[in-house]
Write a structure and sequence with these properties.
Shape: rod-shaped
Function: Involved in the TonB-dependent energy-dependent transport of various receptor-bound substrates. Protects ExbD from proteolytic degradation and functionally stabilizes TonB.
Strand order of the largest sheet: 1-2
Mean pLDDT: 78
Protein name: Biopolymer transport protein ExbB
Number of helices: 7
Family: Belongs to the exbB/tolQ family.
Radius of gyration: 28 Å
Subunit structure: The accessory proteins ExbB and ExbD seem to form a complex with TonB.
Structural class: mainly alpha
Subcellular location: Cell inner membrane; Membrane
Order of helices and strands: HHHHHHHEE
């Protein structure tokens, strides 16, 4: 064959539409990989925070437990503990407000839930980009293929040469756009699924920690249910400032 298949030939022989499609796909690939890497680093960081949160309950008082959570302002477990402490103190000191109709349990629950919802929204940021790339990249690549085949057939018809070596080159280069679309979409879909699983694990840990914090601020102790689900013991933790 006179022509070699490759992105370089698609770029040199294609028109502005083909080049625009290639640029769009390459840009989508770069954006999706940036999102995957950044979100994966976040999940790794949050998992470290989750392990530190397990040590929180082995502290002598709340202040010591808070110190074990570190000073990272982005630590959701630390933020949850501070939010619960502030909610409890606010409920005790406030009077003649609308929220006084709620008991301390309901008030702390609402505050902790709002904190978790804010973190969930931040945790899921960027996943819509991966979902969009994974669902649209194959069709953008297919559009580039159809456009390239159309112009290849027009060029072949104009030249009057329809031998296999004249047809295979242009059409094969056009089909590369489909492969490029799949190469962009597959990592985005796999990355999306992996990040969703990682986010779910982090949220499960955060919800468990919030449940324990709620029990601590309401009753003064963390309720630890055993693995068999048949018994539970109360783990006291002194309330500190």
């Amino acid at each position: 064959m006179d022509s070699q298949f490759g992105i370089a030939n698609v770029w040199t022989q294609g028109d502005f539409v083909t080049r625009a499609v290639a640029i769009i796909l390459i840009g989508m690939s770069l954006v999706s990989w940036i999102v995957i890497i950044l979100k994966a680093l976040d999940i790794y960081k949050y998992r470290k925070h989750a392990r530190a949160a397990n040590d929180f309950w082995h502290s002598e008082d709340f202040s010591a437990g808070l110190a074990k959570l570190g000073t990272d302002q982005g630590n959701p477990f630390r933020h949850l503990a501070l939010e619960g402490r502030e909610a409890t103190a606010h409920h005790r000191k406030s009077s003649a407000h609308l929220h006084d109709a709620l008991d301390v349990s309901d008030w702390v629950t609402r505050c902790l839930r709002n904190c978790i919802n804010e973190f969930t929204a931040r945790l899921q940021g960027g996943l819509a980009i991966l979902a969009s790339v994974g669902s649209t990249a194959p069709f953008i690549g297919l559009f580039g293929t159809v456009w390239g085949i159309y112009h290849a057939l027009v060029a072949i018809g104009t030249s009057g040469q329809s031998t296999i070596d004249k047809v295979a080159g242009p059409i094969g280069e056009a089909l590369i756009m489909t492969a490029l679309g799949l190469a962009v979409a597959i990592p985005a879909v796999l990355g999306y699924n992996a990040l969703v699983r990682g986010n779910k694990s982090i949220l499960n840990n955060l919800n468990s920690f919030a449940h324990d914090m709620h029990a601590y601020f309401v009753t003064g102790a963390r309720v630890n249910v055993q693995n068999d689900g048949e018994s539970a013991k109360v783990l006291p933790l002194k309330k500190g400032a």
